[in-house]
Design brief:
The protein has 98 residues and is an all-alpha fold. The chain has one domain. It is built from 5 helices and no strands.
């Protein structure tokens, strides 16, 4: 776990996991509760949290991409696309580890 925090890429991986978990909770727990049980409170709570994590992930990806001189078409765009696909950040986190 210490390894995750020691580099910017490690912190990006951690942020990706958090963003991915928030997206999954939003899609598969909060939204069904909102429309199935008429309980929108979880969407109201998780929506802004996910939004902040999502924006932070994008900003960090772009910053690290510039710092590491990643070729945008080879690396950066794949990482950015991963954050809008459920389970994408988990996959890309493993790729970043390599």
């Amino acid at each position: 776990m210490k390894q995750l925090f020691s580099t910017r890429i490690g912190r990006l991986r951690l942020l990706g996991y958090l963003e991915g978990i928030s997206l999954l909770l939003l899609l598969f727990v909060a939204v069904p509760l909102k429309y199935g049980a008429n309980k929108p409170s979880m969407v109201h709570a998780l929506g802004p949290v996910h939004g902040i994590l999502f924006l932070w992930y994008i900003i960090q990806t772009l910053g690290i991409g510039v710092e590491q001189r990643w070729e945008f078409q080879k690396t950066t765009w794949k990482i950015l696309v991963a954050c809008i696909i459920p389970f994408g950040t988990f996959y890309i986190g493993r790729q970043l580890r390599k």
